[in-house]
Amino acid sequence: MNRKKRYVVMTFGSYGDVFPMLGLCEELKRRGEDVAFCSRPGTREMAERIGIEFIGAGDDALYEESVRNPDIWHPWKASFMVAEKIGELIDPSYAVVRNEYEKHGEDLVVIASMLVFGARLAREQWGFRLVTVHLQPLVFRDTRKPPRFSVYGPDMRKLPRWVNRGFYGVADLLLDGVVRKPLNEWQVEHGIEPVKKGIFRDWGHSPDLVLGMFPEWFAEKGEEWPRVSEVVGFPVWDDEEKAGLSAELEAFLNGGDEGGSGGDRPVVITPGSANVFGGKFIEVGVEACRKIGRRALVMTGYPEQICELKEGREMWCEYAPFDVLFKRVSVVMHHGGVGTTARCLGSGVPQIIMPLAHDQPDNGQRVKELGAGDWIAPKKFTVERVAARLEEMVGDAEMKSNCENMAGQIAGEDGVKRAVDLIVGE
């Protein structure tokens, strides 16, 4: 008789990082597995609401400090800032895994973001099964078809592979340099051979299983990816507590025409759940909508950054479930996070993306190449340019058809189920 496994799912970050992992937790629980979710304390309520055991690690102050630092959205400073924060999470994440391993031994399976170095270090010590989860294609190496790293850099797919290898080499040298000191000090202290190079290139990926949480038509599996990589599809999951729309939001959506189903569907403007610096983005988006006579729905958890809105034509809401809302709007204007990008694709709605940093430029480029939207660099994100592109999109029958076709593809996939099949070995 097989012994019961213990699954611990770990991540730190915004809703875009947390929601997919809670989706994995919920599917594991549905199958009768023993599962716990480990993250910053501020996510406890979401986990416990769906009946998932919660393990707190780190603190919310580190998260708030990070999102309120403007460097988090800088085109190149952002990567160094994230690398620096990784070191601060080693001890708390390792302590959780050590405690779990002491109780469950080889029956422990840890499912974690690549940035949870504490889990990777514990795997080196004790050899339990570790699954690395990548939500975005950007983190996979590919010198043949490299991702877009910046809105201002060249299209690397037009460059020779030796140039792209050189770029990755320099990036490794710089980013590994930020995290190497705390990582190596920790390894020496615990009797583990220090990793001298290839921290993000090789070591950060689990040798057991690496999951790409997106469909292959969004990002084709490359020959340089880890050998144990599997692409499973987008992880569609939302907070069930907020699954419905408020009466006020329903009234607004229905206010443009009969049922909100015709030409006056509003435009959603959302800078992302972790962006406290989205004021200018929101202002430009709202003004662009006014310029072409479209209604606007601003969605942000930081209302202090909202410009003055016109009653009846414009509305603010803190949050609404994307899968319900996006099917009832004309265009979504957002930051290019992979979670929002995936929900737009799954809802069949065109996107205008203003990417800043991290995976956002790459996601924006992929959306553009799929014919499902467009991206505009921050320096070119003006009322005139956004209004013109918005008006084109609203009347673009080919783009709408592309979006509907991709929504149909996603409806036939189940990234969470496929991921859990691989995690439990089915």
UniProtKB/TrEMBL annotation:
Limits of the Glycosyltransferase family 28 N-terminal domain: 8-125
Listed CDD domains: GT1_Gtf-like
Gene3D superfamilies per record: Glycogen Phosphorylase B
Domain Erythromycin biosynthesis protein CIII-like C-terminal stretches: 318-411
Domain of life from the UniProt record: Bacteria
EC id: 4.3.3.5
One Pfam family here: Glyco_transf_28
GO MF annotation: an example: lyase activity
Alphabetically ordered keywords of this record: Lyase, Transferase
Tagged with keyword Lyase: yes
InterPro entries in the record: EryCIII-like_C (IPR010610), Glycosyltransferase_28 (IPR050426), GlycoTrans_28_N (IPR004276), UDP_glucos_trans (IPR002213)
One GO biological process term: vancomycin biosynthetic process
Protein name, as recorded: MurG-like transferase
Species in which this protein is naturally found: Poriferisphaera corsica
